[in-house]
Amino acid sequence: MHKEKEKSWNEWIQELDDPKKNRKKPEALDHITVLDVSYANMAGCFATSTLAEFGATVIRIEPPGGDPARTYTPWGYMHMDTGLGYLNEGRNKFHVTLDLESEEGREMFLKLAKRADVVVETFLSGTMDEWGIGYRQLKELNPGLIYCALYTYGQFGPKAACGKADVDVVDQAYSGVVSVGGEPVDDPANPKPSEVPTKQGNWMGWYAGGAWAAAAVLAALHYRNHSGKGQFIDVSPAEAYGRCINYGITYYYGFKETIPRVGNYDVGVFPYTYFKCKDGFAFLSGFADPNWKALCTIINRPDLQQQFPTIFERLNVDNMKVMYKEIEKWTMEHTYDEIFDAVMDYNKNIGEGVVVPGRISSPMDTMKAENWWVRQALETIDDPHYGEVTIANHAHKMTESPPRVKWVCRPVGADNYYVYAKMLGLGPKRLEELKEKGVI
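Above: the chain's sequence. Below: its structure in token form.
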């Protein structure tokens, strides 16, 4: 006990949460079976990736020929017939094919769902119900089933039956978040081509939807533990991303105005943004009065502190533009390391207010950052089919039942015999007949 006290917190917790030991620990969901019927949609794939990381047996059901999501990739680049986006979200799953538009395929799905704990689907609202394999039918066969449907406009409401496909860029746009992203318009009469609403570069709508769906599934599993009841989960990725809009909605209802597009400025705090420096960009935060005074001291501009002494003056967008240009005059004369040293020297030796610095990392900078690798936020896996692949790993670090990635992906159809034989008790001959018919 005495020796444990001698260790720093960082040393003690890393030893308890050592990623190298985690693969031998129990998996929280190793008793759960999930059917992933998401189609051309990374929201569903991400939701089931999360469940699979926690140990659930995830059976990814794709149409004969494979899911179009397998082709999502930059510039058409494929690795062994699989897109790079799917390599990140095929993890730990068993991939099978099944024609849900055929009667025989739907009969097989009903049998699978009867034995499953969770179903995740991303079809147009009501599609699975029309096929006779939606929640309305499945709950009669399996009362404990948790059924999660993801769709841009949800399963009910004025837009639910509009027939538009769920795509990430629409999820982002419909959420309302995109309206405040992008460069602010300096001259409304002559806007620049770049001064337009701007989406996130990644599939943020889909990923937000998938994250919320996974959280809801976990809550539903917990509820089922003491009630025995399954339930239906309706997730709109647009609403999920809209949940991230912070104070935009409350501001509108309070003042009957919408927050304008202000680019990298933040109408709630300033300075709190990125500035050009000699070797890239630096983040600086010093928005509270004492912190603003500290920043002005560091850059030797007491006149700025006197000109904009209160937070209310600093939150005026026109004033932000003035302050930004003046601060950037200083940052552009220094490298990031010089900026960091100046800020930290002030914080340590003077400490009248605190300024927070940060470096803007390129993807390559991130790949080289030791901290990411030590914490296994990035991990290189030797996959049995796809070979050596580096992935963005799970974000959860847990001491008793940690998540893990056991394989990156599997080619479509490779595990048909294993999964169907195990769950449905079908012999090789029957499976071959189904394959010849195009059912699987």
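Residues 10-244+374-437 form a domain with the Rossmann fold fold (CATH 3.40.50.10540).
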